[in-house]
Specification:
451 residues; alpha/beta; Rossmann fold; three-stranded mixed β-sheet; 11 strands
């Protein structure tokens, strides 16, 4: 039976672009269709930087209706719409103000694939997230639907004014160009290995052993859950972060989607007209009490007022501050929550560690790899001191992200200082990728020769 392959690469034009998604298509197009699909013959549909979500939906719907195996390759960037804070795949015309009307809602992908027979659908994803979406992923899995094999990675935002390369998908394409298609789990592992240290901070997507459920990124604070059993309950999404699998609740299945209407194209509207679209899951947000500041510090009045307007949800306020470039305000709010959690629950509590992890990511968004690396190292050390095992997913994730940020430090003196701490942690927490400790030691050796 012939297979079907959908190649989708999309990213916004202009300054909102985080990743050069379309650059991977020539490499994928050089792979024989049968190798892309893993079948004797296959039909390939290619979408390069599409403009309209409706056009993508039409092609996706046709691919989902085809009999036989379906393999979907998606490269691009994730953004949240401002109204419901649900993830969308940004398209060529997408801007932060028009995500809901110019981007492809991720739940459309889930809905179109929902009725396909279990075991016939595979997704390979190479996605980058903007700061707001990266924070959202801490509390939500990227739900791609049950019964599908999902592999890939979600990368944090690149540095300021930088456009990332879809390195994971290019690695997949390069491996497939040999003419041999490994089992998807092996293909995924080979691609991850080719990322090297550049991928240590990514969220890795892979099903747990024995499970056919969709995978998504694990929030670092939730990744300390026990490894997934051989079979997963239907009410949970098997997720894999940088360190390993965990369980995150999945929204209940919505009703059969209605036909989305053709979107209008207002110029940067503040509140465009509604689209008729597939039903959406509720976007539950975790409420939080008002923040109390650490000794000797006081957060700015503007975030305090914004917190009241947002129903005291500090995560939403922090995301807004980051999006508008107010990194100091965002860190001040997170610091106050961290201090409150320390007083209420203690230094080794998940509540306190969560806010430390938020501050580590905020330092990354602010372009401060030294502070981000130092904070991730402290989080890893705190988890180990609290009795968590060196191979616990949350411990491995913290060390992986410290390793990633360490590689971005430009100052040799700072890199040497933190590199020594990282090498000590790597000797205790080697992680899932081979050669991580050797990489740190080799880089430290080179730093010793620099001023």
């Amino acid at each position: 039976m012939p297979g079907t392959v959908l190649l989708l690469a999309a990213s916004p034009a202009g300054k909102g672009c985080l990743v050069d998604a379309a650059s991977v298509l020539p490499v994928l197009a050089a792979v024989p269709p049968a190798v892309l699909s893993g079948t004797e013959t296959a039909n390939v549909v290619e979408l390069a930087d599409p403009l309209e979500p409706q056009a993508v939906l039409t092609r996706l719907r046709a691919a989902a209706a085809a009999t036989g195996p379906l393999t979907v390759f998606v490269t691009g960037q994730l953004q949240l719409d401002r109204r419901q804070r649900l993830p969308h795949l940004a398209l060529a015309r997408t801007t932060p103000a028009t995500v809901r009307y110019t981007a492809l809602p991720w739940h459309w992908i889930r809905e179109e694939l929902r009725l396909r027979p279990a075991g016939t659908t595979s997704l390979l994803l190479d996605l980058h997230a903007d700061p707001e979406t990266w924070e959202w992923l801490r509390a939500h899995p990227l739900d791609s639907g049950p019964g599908h094999a999902v592999y890939g990675r979600i990368a944090p935002p690149p540095g300021r004014r930088a456009v990332a390369v879809p390195a994971y998908m290019k690695a997949v394409a390069t491996i497939l160009r040999s003419g041999h298609r490994p089992e998807l789990a092996d293909l995924h592992q080979q691609a991850v290995a080719r990322l090297g240290s550049d991928g240590y901070g990514d969220l890795l997507l892979a099903p747990a052993a024995g499970s056919a459920l969709a995978a998504g990124p694990a929030p670092a604070s939730a990744a300390a859950a026990a490894p997934a059993p051989a079979s997963a309950p239907a009410s949970a999404a098997v997720v894999s972060g940088a360190g390993g699998p965990a369980f995150v609740p999945r929204p209940s299945e919505p009703a059969e989607p209605s036909e989305p209407a053709e979107p209008s194209e207002p110029a940067e509207p503040s509140e465009p007209p509604e689209l008729s679209e597939p039903p959406e899951p509720s976007a539950a947000s975790g409420g939080a009490a008002r923040l109390t500041g650490p000794p000797g510090s006081q957060a700015p009045e503007e975030p305090d007022a914004a917190a009241a307007d947002a129903g005291d949800d500090p995560h939403a306020v922090i995301s807004d501050a980051v999006r508008s470039g107010r990194h100091a305000d965002a860190d001040a709010l997170a610091a106050r929550h961290e201090q409150a959690a320390l007083r209420a629950h203690g230094p080794g509590s998940e509540e306190a560690l969560h806010w430390a992890e938020v501050r580590a990511d905020l330092a990354m968004f602010a372009g401060d790899p030294v502070r981000s690396c130092r904070t991730w190292l402290a989080v890893a050390a705190a988890r180990l001191s609290a009795g968590q095992a060196p191979d616990a997913p949350a411990v491995e994730a913290a060390v992986d992200r410290a390793h990633h940020q360490w590689g971005l430090i430009g100052d040799p003196a700072g890199a040497r200082e933190l590199g020594s701490l990282l090498a000590d942690l790597r000797s205790r927490v080697p992680g899932r990728r081979e050669g991580a400790l050797e990489h740190v030691r080799r880089q430290l050796g080179q730093l010793q020769t620099q001023g």
